[in-house]
Amino acid sequence: MVKRAARSLLVDYKLPQITVMFWVLKIAATTLGETGGDLLAQTLKLGYAQASLLFLAIFVVSVLTQLRVRRFHPALYWTVIAATSTAGTTMSDLINRGPGSDTSTDGGLGYGVGALLLISGLALVFAIWKFSGQTFDVANITTFRGELLYWAAILLSNTLGTSLGDYLSDSSGLGYWGSGFLIAVVMALILTAHYLTNISGVLLFWMAFVLTRPLGATMGDWLSKPHASGGLALGTYGTSAALLAILIIGIAYNYRKIQRTPAPEHATVGPALKR
Predict the structure, then answer these.
(1) Which of 181, 166, 177 is nearest to 230 (CA)?
(2) Distance CA 225, CA 212 (A)
(3) To bridge 163 with a disulfide, which of 8, 115, 241, 267 should be the other Cys (CB 3.0-4.6 Å)?
(4) Residue 56's pLDDT band (boundaries 50, 70, 90)?
(5) Is 265 exposed, middle or buried (0-12, 13-18, 19+ CB in 10 A)?
């Protein structure tokens, strides 16, 4: 009876708590998005345009399902995150490189113009978010419109992060190690600011969230690309499989933690998700 009463309190817990495990899974999912997107678009020669349509369809189906559920489901949530990452990878490559599977930017707008367009799009989403009156605090998003804006921002941030990661690793001269190190340093500064300054935690969260995407992109390229390009030559198949295994283990851990945590500590009691 006590267990049933506790479970009845699980209402409207839609999004995960921001913990170390969250960031581990976020980086794994975004890195998987890079290698998974490259697997279809480049290795299997599907092309960036067709791969983008496929991954966008997966994203739409998964995010509509996520919007309809009443509480947090780790497998569903991370499926949507992975879908935004893979779609973001191929959409970014489509903008920057063109519709084919070539890795040069001759057929596209290039990294600079592509990044400018994506930054403008993300800024527009945040502007709409601000004027909508919905909270930016992801721990307190309880409305349909708020969660819709949350997923729009994530999709654009992952697409922008791919462009930034590709620019840093391919065009800036830093290479995979240099760009990965630079992003890691910036993220360490954000973490320091979180503990030692009064800068808004919401602002720092979104800065870190955006930066995990280029970090994942450079890590994915470093793991999968050939030695001649500065990578470890693990290939898109092997790298994607390893990252998928990490995600599955992390999701299983989330489910186990939810089952073991008393309801008052991990659930909120309140009204159904409002529109």
Answers:
(1) 177
(2) 19
(3) 115
(4) very high
(5) exposed
Q: Chain centroid to CA 211: how far?
A: 10
Place of tokens 């300054």: 197
> How many C-beta neighbours within 10 Å does residue 156 have?
23
Cα 161 to Cα 92, 193, 208, 229, 254: the distances in Å are 9, 21, 11, 20, 26
Residues 6+ apart with CB under 8 A from 269: 9, 11
DSSP assignment string, 197-211 = S-S-HHHHHHHHHHH
Indicate the pTM of the whole model. 0.81
- 188-202, 212-226, 234-248 — which is least confidently predicted? 212-226
- Count of residues in the chain: 275
Mean pLDDT within 155-176: 79
Sign of CA dihedral 172, 178, 183, 186: negative
Q: Tell me the one-letter amino acid at 216.
A: G
Q: How many angstroms separate the CA atoms of 252 and 34, rounded?
A: 23
SS3 for 47? coil
